[in-house]
């Protein structure tokens, strides 16, 4: 509510169009009435409002994480549908401090301890957190001063959640000088360190990486010569560009994959294949990760490939080239791309008949392009 009131003031001063979305996760019976209260405030102050409802969850796994993933997805889909480019979120200094504390409990590195960014690009949108320097107590005081009511979420007192345990621990740590402000400062310091590491990673990408056939290739000797943290970040960035997992692979999984690639020349991690061919280190999509994916020619395939081709052709679907398709591409060796990479590239099919394999064989009628994502490090490096 504080974010809404503050943004309403800001939008009025700067003549910016403001819309509001409330996510009802359906986890508490009171949530619907709370969303109605926000809608009523918005209606009284001429702010367009919509309630986005989360449905279809099977109730398994981490509740808060599943709700968070759904919340961002619902907000992103709504914003893009409305032509909205910027979304503001109401995270506070308290949230930042709790995130740092949970990161310490997990022995997180620089990224985990840098917590939440004040601004980031993701899903084609710019996400803002303008309240990270403000405490919850300050925001409650602001609302009281404005005569605006708000609702307290009872789950914020539920000790079964990790964040609530961190919140309670902060009260104990305050005697040591470990308070919300100091932990938020740690996040700021780590964010600066992360920015420096990202800068070095981008330089390593420029120096070493070549993008071909939807995969990334680089000299293995050059990769091994990088500082360990920069090499890890480069590999994570490559996986993000190729597979866009919802979470970066854990450090243990990356280390195991690299060790396997070093000893056996091949490994898999996070839906990607890692292979060495001589001194060339390849990272590309794993065939098994895309073997089931089907789409029509007008839709993105594997959420990253856009297919362009003969609009008059009767095309039933786009799916992975696979072994059957590669057998119908006698010229594939001329691409100088690994065979296993080509298996996971998009192909145009009509039933069992291969119409085109734009990556595996040249054709003037069809082409395949990897779409760019503004928040992806590889696309920031190669997007110009």
Automatic annotation (TrEMBL):
EC number of this enzyme: 6.3.4.19
GO biological process annotation, one example: tRNA modification
Keyword annotations from UniProtKB, A to Z: ATP-binding, Cytoplasm, Ligase, Nucleotide-binding, tRNA processing
Record-given protein name: tRNA(Ile)-lysidine synthase
Subcellular location: Cytoplasm
An example molecular function term from Gene Ontology annotations: tRNA(Ile)-lysidine synthase activity
Pfam families linked: ATP_bind_3
General function of this protein: Ligates lysine onto the cytidine present at position 34 of the AUA codon-specific tRNA(Ile) that contains the anticodon CAU, in an ATP-dependent manner. Cytidine is converted to lysidine, thus changing the amino acid specificity of the tRNA from methionine to isoleucine.
Domain of life assignment: Bacteria
Reaction catalysed by this enzyme: cytidine(34) in tRNA(Ile2) + L-lysine + ATP = lysidine(34) in tRNA(Ile2) + AMP + diphosphate + H(+)
SUPFAM superfamilies: Adenine nucleotide alpha hydrolases-like
InterPro entries given in the database record: Rossmann-like_a/b/a_fold, TilS/TtcA_N, tRNA_Ile_lys_synt, tRNA_Ile_lys_synt_N
Organism: Roseobacter litoralis (strain ATCC 49566 / DSM 6996 / JCM 21268 / NBRC 15278 / OCh 149)
Top enzyme category: ligase
An annotated GO cellular component: cytoplasm
